[in-house]
Amino acid sequence: MKKLLLLPLCATMLFVSCNKDDDNDSGDNGSDIVTPTLYTFERDGVSTVSFGGQTTRILMAGETTDAFKAFETATEASIKAMFAHVEGAVDFSDDDLNSSDKSIESKVAASSDFFAANTTEAAIIKGEFAGYIEGQINEVFPNENVLAAAGVAGQIADGTSTRYVNAQGLEYNQMFAKSLLGALMVDQILNNYLSTAVLDAESNRVNNDNDVVEEGKSYTSMEHKWDEAYGYIYGTSENPENPNLTIGEDDKFLNEYTGRVNDDTDFSTIAADIFEAFKLGRAAIVAKDYDVRDEQAEIIRENISKVIAVRGIYYLQQAKIKIENGEVTGSFHALSEAYGFIYSLRFTRKPGTNDAYFSKEEVDGLLSQLTGDGENGLWDLEADTIESISEAIAAEFDFTVAQAASVE
C-alpha cells in the first residue's frame, strides 16, 4: 500500500528524481517522504541544486590560509585583500576566484538569526580575523628565522615540521582557519540558511508551494537556501551529489573535521546523520512538508555543533598529553587548533532554541583560560587548566571528555 501511495506523490510533487537511485525506505523517518540515496533534485529534467557561491568561499578560505605561510610574498595588504576580495581583483591563483563577486569577510558573522540585529559583535568578530592577519605579518614574519621562546615569536620544531608561533605560542594560520569553521561555515549553515526566517522569508513558502522558481533559474528560493547550507559543508567535494563522508582530500574545513569525528566509534554515525538530514530536509521542501524540513534542520544543528565541540576537546586533550610528558612546545600546534574550535563554539546552535551553546562572553572566558593573563600564553599553560576547559565544553553536550579525546 505504501508504494501505491507514493507513486502518485512522485509524479505530482516531483520527488527526488524518483529513479533507481532513490530507493530508500521512507518509513524510517516517520513520514511518507523518500530520503534519496544521492543529493540530486530535478525539475522538468533539470537539476535544481546550486551552491556555487559556497564552493567559491571555501576555496578562497583555503588560499587565504595558505598565504599565512607565504613569507616571501605575502603582505598585510595582500592577505586582507584575499579576505575581503573585490570582484576582478587579482588576489588568488584561480581566475574564477578573482572574477567572483564573493568574499569571505562578507559572510563572517553574518547570519540572519545571530547577527542581523547584532552588528556590533559582528564587526568585532571581523576585526579579530583582521587581527590574525596583522599578527602574522607584523609579529611572526619578522621572526621567521628566530627560535621562539616564552614572550618571543618565532619558529619551533614540531617533529618533522617547522611551526611559526607568536609570542604566546599560538599559530595565527591555525587560529584563522579553525575560527572560520565557526564564523563562516557553521554560522551560515545553522543560523542563516537553515533558519526559518531565511527559508520562509517574504513569499518563499507560497512560491515553493506553487513551484514558482527564481527568475531565470530552475529552483525555488527555499530550495536554493537549503542548497546553500549544503554547499558550506560539501561544496568542494569531488562528487557533491555523493560526497566523501570519511577523511579525505575534498575539503580542509567542515567536511574534513566531520569525517575525523566520525572516525571514532563513539560518533561513528555523525557524518551519515548530517548527510541524511540534508537529503531528507531537501526532499521535504520538494514535498512541501515544512515540519519534516525543520526537524531535519534541528538534526543538522545538533550534529554540526557536536563536531565543533568534540574536535575542540580532542585537540585540548592531545595537547594535555604533550604537556604532561614535558613536551611544552609540542603542544602548541594542537592548542592553536583548539583555540579555533573553541572560538567556533560561539556559532553553534542548541536545537529548538535561538541560542548558541556558548555566548561570546563564555567563549572569550574559555580562551582567556587557555592563553592566560600573562604575555607568555601557552608557555605557562598547565594540564589542569586544559582539563577544566575540556570539562566545561563537554558539560553542554551529551558526551564525555573521554569520548571526545579518543577520536583519531
UniProtKB/TrEMBL annotation:
The family database entries (Pfam families) matched by this protein are listed as: DUF4856
- PROSITE patterns, alphabetized: PROKAR_LIPOPROTEIN
- What name has this protein been given in UniProt? DUF4856 domain-containing protein
Q: What is the species of this protein?
A: Cellulophaga baltica
